Amino acid sequence: MDANTGQKHGAPQPSGPTLTYAEEITPEDVRSLEAFLNAQWDRVYEEVGETGETAFAMRSLLRLISDSAGFLLALVTVECPDAWQRAAIVREWQRLRSTAHEFNHCDGYDHGRWWHQVQHFDAHAEAAEEDRLRQAR
């Protein structure tokens, strides 16, 4: 057990290939990231306790995690997402991923899958942004 984090050291979690684009995000990715965040929330909430403003903030954070993960799960199951849906997938994944990143030292954090930021829905969106930036110079 780590004296600083209270986390048990165990075998690293198996991970899939590193995510490059949001189109690669699967419903299982969303569920596993949400489960990891919920486990960290449970651990921290035990230390915070049931009273005070910190507890209120913790419950609000839990709602935000749940809402964001639920919205993202619905979006990644859309067959051919519209532009706004593609942008929302990138945003919601980054929101959850960056929240989890604060706990990257804890067991269960999937370094292979969650470490890198996903900034574009697909290669086409990345190329379009690069073209736009080149033209703006």
Question: What's this model, at a glance?
Answer:
The chain is mainly alpha-helical. The protein has helices spanning 27-48, 53-76, 83-101, 111-114, 123-136. It is elongated and about 55 Å long.
Q: How would you describe this structure to a colleague?
A:
By secondary structure, the chain is an all-alpha fold. It contains 5 helices and no strands. The protein has helices spanning 27-48, 53-76, 83-101, 111-114, 123-136. Helix 1 (27-48) packs parallel to helix 3 (83-101) and helix 2 (53-76) crosses helix 3. Residues 1-13 have low confidence and may be disordered.
Describe the secondary-structure layout.
Blueprint: H1 27-48, H2 53-76, H3 83-101, H4 111-114, H5 123-136
Helix pairs in contact: 1-2, 1-3, 2-3
Low-confidence stretches: 1-13
Percent strand equals: under 5%
**What sequence of helices (H) and strands (E) makes up the elements?**
HHHHH
Let me know the largest β-sheet. Answer: none
Span from first to last CA? 52 Å
Which secondary-structure class do the elements indicate?
Answer: mainly alpha
Number of strands: 0
Please tell me how large the radius of gyration is: 17 Å
Q: What is the 3D form?
A: elongated
Overall pLDDT level: 87
What is the count of DSSP helices, taking H or I runs of 4+ residues?
A: 5
User: What percent of residues adopt helix (DSSP H or I)?
Assistant: 55-70%
Characteristic key phrases:
elongated, 137 residues, disordered N terminus, mainly alpha, 61% helix, 5 helices
